[in-house]
Every structure is written in structure tokens, then in C-alpha cells.
Design brief:
Order of helices and strands: HHHEEEEHHEHHEEHHH
Number of strands: 7
Strand order of the largest sheet: 1-2-3-4-6-7
Radius of gyration: 20 Å
Strand content: 15-25%
Low-confidence stretches: 1-19
Largest sheet: 6 strands, antiparallel, barrel
Number of domains: 1
Amino acid sequence: MKPLTLSLIFLACLALAGCGAQNTRSNVESPGSDKSTKTSTLETGTAMLQSKEPLSAINVYMDGFHFYNGNMKGQMEAHHYCAVLNEDLNQCVIFDGNRKDAKIMGVEYIISKKLYETLPADEMKLWHSHVYEVKSGLLIASGIPEAAEHEFMEKIAGTYGKTWHTWHTDQQRTLPTGHPLLMMGFTEEGQINPQLVTERDKRFNISSEDNKKKRADIQTPPIDPRADSWKKGETMQLTLGPMTKEASAAMSKQHEAHSRQDRKSGPEK
């Protein structure tokens, strides 16, 4: 697979300001008082004076669809605002719209096949493939030239994503109540509600079917059989309850592992 050229990366970085932006309102209107003049003034000041380097690294916008792992009928559109950390790792903040009123629904981490193959077996079950999302035309990077989007999708096709939603606005929850839930991506025809696609395509003035035809030349990379574990009857999902010995032990082991690594690395120079 060809790496993205510098010129195409630059074009992808313009996606946030390109066409297709600001056409989708949030699913909900949250309770709370209107911003006061004082708050607005403080916002203006902090916007001018504070550095926001992690936010400035978010330069790619993708729109797609997710469903709750264990409940395919629970489907929703997901607006991904992503930072490319390196050639093998992307991190995305997921919103329920692309306007200022959009609510943060969750996060998605996207990794290459190379990194996916380094994961523990139990961890692999939490990740989903992106082949069908790309080949079907469902996943889009609106606002960039067609050639740039095509090459970008070539790269995404062979990756894997782990997605957690923390605010379920698709359930009309006006506040982030409940607990995080693991999400999955679609893998074949007949799974997604066609009305969701029709409505999205109309707002973006695109055709997922046309995308599908244009992406026919994108190679279909083999999907690791350990991904999309729900298809094999292994549906992983979070539930909340009192602290268990297993959960406590897991946190302790992770903390100890990081502490050992820190001691091994030594103080930063």
C-alpha cells in the first residue's frame, strides 16, 4: 500500500474546513443556562492566550457509522475528528454532529495490521475491521479531492479500530449518563439501516453507492480472524458493578508494569 504523499496529507488536513462541514446538528439539546457575557469573554481570552497543541494535531475528518456491540439495531452516525500520530496509529474524537453544538460521543483508536498483530489475544476481541466500511463507500472523508480521499481510504482499509462511546445521544440522552459501551463497525451488506445512509448522503451531497463503485479497485486486505469477534459469538461488552478482585488486580498489574518501565527508562533528560 502506498503511503500518503505530503501533498495529499496537506489536502486531508483541509478537510475540517472543506465542504461537508457544519451540516449535521447534535442529536440532543442539553440542559443548562445560556453562556454569560463573562464566560464568553473568558473563552475569547483563553482562545487567544492558551496553547492547544493536542487539538491542533486533529486534522482529519471522517464520517461513518457504528453499532453497539451486542445490539446491531442500535446504530448511529459518527463524526470522527482524528490526529495521525504516526503511520500506524491514529486517535479520533467522535462527535454526534459537525456543528458547534456537537456532543462528544466517544473515542476511536485506529491501528495498522502490524500493530494489531502485537496485541494480546483478549485485547484483539475488542477491535473491528474497516474493510467493508471502506469498500462499501460508507466511510467518507468529505471535503478533500476525490483522489486524496481514495488514497486515504486505501490506507484505512487494512486498519483496525477500537471504539468506546461514552455519551449515548442516539438514545436522546441529554447528559452523559450511563457507562461507556464498546462499539463495532459493519462488515457486510444488509446490516446497516439504509435510512441512516440515505439521510447522511443527502446532507453531504454524496452517494455511498458511487463511492463503492469508485473504490472497487482498492484491494481487499485479509481480515484477521480474531477481529470482529461478535461474528463468532464472542460479544464483549462493559457492565458496571461493585469493584471485583479481578478488576483491582488488573489495575494494580498495569500500574506496576508502567512503574517498572519508568524505572527502567530512568529520568527524562
